[in-house]
């Protein structure tokens, strides 16, 4: 099966096509180090058989943390990260005979920054569509001078990631966070807004800064919103009617590819405002099957437009026990090069191992796409699956959120 085939990306090789997506556990320590639940989660991932484990959003600065326990890689905790990576590789080699590639996602939470537990939004611009019921938040619009300082923070984090032993880094640009928001800064003045060149300036500058410090055998990648889901001027990758329009998305991917970027983890939407777009689910704002097909169509359009690049297909957890056969069909028909799993990794981290051993997934373990993991995150506590990982997360859910459904 193609899902089990190796895949070369640059000078590296993935042992299979399974990607564990960056899912925040909000369970680091207050200084950004690896917490007890963080280690537990990633060690479970290491025993999954996945070919690529994409570490969750890790802040490049204190003010850009989405919560007080978001991971934050620094000089005084880099050895904690290195120890976890070493243990993960050893556990995977012992079980499967290979180690997964490990990617660090670097982020600035921007509009969703809560470094001290309450909103401290840093934004590219003010926009009513994003601020309904939040008009009185203490918004700070980044100045051009502050924008010019940001690439050095990404560069420093990338250097630390190399010191820790990561196989590559992701310059995150999705889901309404800071770099993604700049892409739709049509009405922002100055060097970081307005025309396409201005709107992509900050993102590309951060990519270029990171590229400077990455060894040639390490991976530079991105989780990219190809489509924001809001009509102009509130979103990137859309037209005035709110329909998908990938002209600028393709232009941006071409620029990133010219910088040596080969792997693209494609996403869309905004989990705070329109979660059904990037997290197809049952009982949401739309039939989850519609969201799955939207994600597939968009990803396939990009994969066909750039056949020499590798694209990760997301939104797969909705497919339940049929997810591997469905993913295999997507690999075979040219939709994507890799299969990305998010919520399923919280609920059922050993799903791929089970598939290799039995040829099927256990219906009693699969992700129900119920959204309880997200409810925990929004409640300001750690995130996990209170339904499938009850011993660890159900007591926390009941205390912080309510009864899990």
Task: Describe the structure in your own words.
- The chain has 14 helices and 13 strands.
- The radius of gyration is 20 Å and the shape is globular.
- With 405 residues, the chain is an alpha/beta fold.
- Helix 1 runs parallel beside helix 2 (78-96) and helix 2 packs across helix 3.
- It has an eight-stranded parallel barrel, surrounded by four helices. Strands 1-2 form a two-stranded antiparallel sheet. Strands 7-8 form a two-stranded parallel sheet.
- The model has no long low-confidence stretch (mean pLDDT 97).
- Helix content is 37%, strand content 14%.
Spans of at least 5 consecutive residues with low confidence? none
Helices, by number, come to: 14
Q: How widely separated are the two ends?
A: 35 Å
How much β-strand is present in the residues?
Answer: 5-15%
Strand count, sense and barrel status of the largest sheet are:
8 strands, parallel, barrel
Q: What number is the mean pLDDT?
A: 97
Cα shape:
globular
Biggest sheet strand order reads 3-4-6-9-10-11-12-13
* String of helices and strands: EEEHEEHEEEHEHHHEHEHHEHEHHHH
Specify the structural class. Answer: alpha/beta
Task: Count the beta strands.
Answer: 13
Helix content: 25-40%
Rg is: 20 Å
